[in-house]
Amino acid sequence: MLEIKHLYKRYGGFLALNDFSLSIEDGELFGFVGANGAGKTTTMRICVGLLGADSGEVLIDGESILGDHRKLSSKVGYVPDFFGVYNSFTSMEYLKFFASAYGITGEPAEILCNDLLKLVKLENKANVDVNGLSRGMKQRLCLARALVHNPDILFLDEPASGLDPAARYELKEILRNLSSMGKTIVISSHILSELAEMCTTIGIIDRGHLMIKGTLDEINRASASSSPLIIAVREDSIDYTFEILKQFPEIQKVVLQGNRFIITYTGTREQESELLNVLISRGVGILSFSRQEGSLESLFMQIVTSNAPKRRNGR
Q1: Measuring CA to CA, which residue among 243, 241, 221 is closest to residue 232?
Q2: Dihedral pair phi/psi, residue 179, rounded to 5°
Q3: β-strands 63-64, 209-215: how paired?
Q4: pLDDT range class, residue 204, cuts 50, 70, 90
Q5: Alpha-carbon Rg for the chain in angstroms
Q6: Measuring CA to CA, how many Å separate 93 from each of 48, 151, 193?
């Protein structure tokens, strides 16, 4: 189990992580989503020992790993958002080089590297120069490199960035296979739809703070409740409806499209029913009352908007 507790990290005047805490169970395929600069990469680099935290803890199976680089390097594997490949090597030579860094040489290294190339579907590229591989193939080779020492947890920073649809599909299949083998996998992205297709659990980070975490079903339920209310009324009820809607603090934003009110609404289902009852009891000519179909994107935008610093003095 991976536990991140109360991490803080500041770059000069910028607070990148603000009391960030997160728990990930063994075997989870966890999707870590947030806008660029939200704190995803900073968190990952701290967890793999490439960056120090100002304060806080990272524990694996109850043991603190920050500061213990030997223990850390044996527990985690990391695929950064850029490729660390050596173009003068073949794919096999590249993996053997990293295997030797862990003391694996000779026949054991040959067997291991062949197995890893099969795992990432590059067995027919063993003797091909790394420079001749496509972007997707290089990404899979970097994934194989991160598995050389058989880590418990894999961190992948924006692994699908820049990949074409076929390469993204291949990567997803490999990650699902690794998850079924018991690996704990943490994937970061700023694209929710990518994570929704492959992850068992998703967390949304914004401004260095974890805003929500749950299974895909839990996140989908939250996204359904976060989606806009759509209320269509008769033309002669538009102005009157506006006045009534102003009285409800759960309504954050109202956009009028023709005779349809598109409402950003933070209330519960019970409060939503009460809103409908009030509109009916006050004689509003309601033609329809519904929720827009939920989406992870709408939930993400609502979280980011609600967490944004409030402007003052019109700025």
Answers
A1: 241
A2: -65, -40
A3: unpaired
A4: confident
A5: 24
A6: 25, 21, 36
Residue 292: both structure tokens together: 């827009």
Which of 66-70, 166-170, 300-304 has maximum average pLDDT? 166-170
pLDDT tens string 236-245 = 999 999 999 9
Q: Distance between CA atoms of 12 and 148, rounded to whole angstroms?
A: 36
Distance CA(158)–CA(116), nearest Å, equals 21
DSSP output for the chain: -EEEEEEEEEETTEEEEEEEEEEE-TT-EEEEE--TTSSHHHHHHHHTTSS--SEEEEEETTEE-TT-HHHHHHHEEEE-SS----TTSBHHHHHHHHHHHTT--HHHHHHHHHHHHHHTT-GGGTTSBGGGS-HHHHHHHHHHHHTTT--SEEEEESTTTT--HHHHHHHHHHHHHHHHTT-EEEEEES-HHHHHTT-SEEEEEETTEEEEEEEHHHHHHHHHHHSPEEEEE-GGGHHHHHHHHTT-TTEEEEEEETTEEEEEE---HHHHHHHHHHHHHTT--EEEEEEPPP-HHHHHHHHHHHHSPPP-TT-
Q: How far apart are CA 188 and CA 142, in angstroms?
A: 16
Q: How far apart are the first and last CA of the chain?
A: 44
pLDDT at 189 over 90: no
Question: For the segment 266-302, what is each residue's pLDDT rounded down to a tens digit?
Answer: 777 788 899 999 999 999 999 999 877 555 555 666 6
How far apart (Å, rounded) are the C-alpha atoms in residues 158 and 188?
5
Alpha carbons 80 and 83: distance in angstroms, whole number: 7
Asked whether the beta carbons of 246 and 236 are under 8 A apart, the reply is no
pLDDT score recorded for residue 310? 46
> How many other C-beta atoms lie within 10 A of the C-beta of residue 111?
11
Amino acid found at 72: L
Q: Is the pTM of this model over 0.70?
A: yes
